[in-house]
Design a protein that fits this description.
single chain; 6 helices; 2 strands; two-stranded antiparallel ribbon; mainly alpha
């Protein structure tokens, strides 16, 4: 981040977070050809919100659920400011990644996938 100009950071950081969110959500909610249903998404968001008082205050469950359901092709994302969406992505990304308890090799593969997707999104 320190090596990027502020306008680059404003473009690259949200793209990387968004890409990592997509990769993590697909790994978390898609198993083979089975895509999680709405109740599984609702349960996940509820668990994230219950994780701490801070998460409960930060996460709008309706927005979080709509972001995941839209990504999974099972709903439509509700309208929200870009900063609000980014904040939700960061918190839910952290929750999904912490559940995985990646080995160093798995973490490297996850980061490579996220970075590759971010580069695609920026093209």
């Amino acid at each position: 981040m320190d090596q990027l100009e502020s306008d680059e950071a404003n473009r690259f950081y949200p793209a990387l977070v968004g890409a990592a969110f997509i990769v993590a959500a697909e790994q978390h909610f898609v198993k083979g050809d089975q895509v999680a249903d709405e109740l599984q998404v609702i349960d996940f968001v509820a668990q994230v919100r219950e994780g701490s008082d801070e998460c409960s205050d930060l996460i709008n469950p309706r927005l979080a659920e709509s972001m995941l359901l839209d990504l999974l092709g099972k709903g439509t994302m509700i309208d929200a400011a870009p900063g609000m969406k980014l904040g939700h992505q960061i918190v839910m990304l952290a929750a999904m990644v912490s559940e995985k308890q990646f080995t160093p090799v798995e973490l490297e593969a996850f980061l490579y996938s996220a970075r590759s997707l971010a580069e695609e999104l920026l093209e």
